[in-house]
Amino acid sequence: MQENSFENARQMLEFLNPLDTERWPPGQTIFRGQPECSQQLLPSIHRLGGPVTAPRFYGDIDISRNQQVNFEKLVLNAFLEACDHSGLSVPGDSLAVRARAINLDSLVDGNASWPTNDLHEILAFAQHHGVPTCLLDWTRNPYISAYFAASSALGALKDTDKKLDGYLAVWALSTRATGFDIIQPPGGTSPYLAAQSGLFTVSRIYGPGDSIFLPLPLNQDKSIEPGPDDSSHLQLLTLPRSEAADLLEGCARMGVTGSKLFPGYEGIAKSVRDWANIHHRGSSLVEDSIRYLLS
To answer: In this protein, which residues make up the domain named FRG (predicted)?
Structure first.
C-alpha cells in the first residue's frame, strides 16, 4: 500500500485532479473518503463498534459465519418487510429472489458464499438508504470522495472538541487489481447512486459456516493482487482534519456539494449541515461557504 500525506486542502485537491490522466488513468481507480485515516475499509455491518451488528444481536463477540450471514439476511428481510408495509418498491426485488437468496435456512457451507449475485441491486438500494450491509461505498469521482471525507470529519466533531486533531483519509483503489469484487448497479437503482458516481465493493462470506467469523478489512486483505503495471493496488491519502473546512469549500468550488450528491430535500439539509459545521468551526471561509455549499 502506498501512502501520501498532504499539509493543506489545496495540495490534496491538486493531487486528486482527474485531469491528471497519467496519475489517474480513466476508469482504472475508484475512491472512498473517510473521517479518520485509522478507520479500516470494512462495511458497516461488519464493524464491531457499529450500532447494528451480529455480536450485539446475539450477545456474543464470537459468532460463526453462519450466524453472521443469518443476521445480514435478517436485516435485509426487515428492510424489505418495512418497504412492503409502506407500499414501496425495491429495485431488483421479486418473490423468486426472496425465496432463493434470502432464505434463512440457506446459509454458508463449503460450496456457497454470501451474498449471491441476484441480491446486489437490493443491497445497493438498501445501502444508499442507510441500511447496514456487506457493501462498501466507493465513487469514480475523486472530488466526491474528498467531499465525504471532509463532511464526515466535520460532522463527527463534538461541541466539546477544542481543535480538529487527527487525519482524514481518501482511499484510492485500482480496479485492475484482482481478488475482490466490484458491484456497479444500474444508475436507476437510486438517484443518489447516479449523482455520486457510486459503486461498491462487497465483503463476501464463504464456508465452512460453523467456523468463527473474522471480519477482514479490504486494506488488510493479502489475497488482493495489483493489476498490470501497478506498483500497489491501494493508496492512502491523508490530510490534517484541521483542513476539513477548506477541503469542503474546495470541493464546493468544483461543484461537489451535499445538494448535488443527494438530489432532493435531504441534500439541501445536508448542505445546510455542512455550512453550519464550517460556521461552528470559525473558518475564514464562512461567508463564501454560504454561496457555494447552498448552491
So the answer is: 25-169
Label residue 116 exposed, middle or buried (CB < 10 Å: 0-12, 13-18, 19+).
Answer: middle
In a domain, 18, yes or no: yes
Residue 276 lies in a domain: no
Domain of residue 160: give its range.
2-243
- Asked whether residue 264 is assigned to any structural domain, the reply reads no
Domain tally for the chain?
Answer: 1
What separation in angstroms does the CA of 201 have from each of 85, 104, 142, 198? 30, 24, 16, 11
pLDDT tens figures, 102-146: 776 666 666 678 998 999 999 999 998 999 999 999 999 999 999
Cβ neighbours around 266 below 10 Å, total: 13
Residue 195 CA from chain centroid, whole number: 14
Cα–Cα distance for residue pair 69/205, rounded to 1 Å: 7
> Looking at residue 38, what DSSP letter applies?
T
Residue 242 DSSP label: G
Query: What is the pTM for the complete model shown?
Result: 0.89
How many other CB atoms are found less than 10 A from the CB of residue 118? 14
Structure confidence by residue, pLDDT tens digits, 165-198: 899 999 999 999 999 999 998 888 888 899 999 9
Write out the three cell numbers for 273.
449541515
Whether 277 maps to a domain, the answer reads no
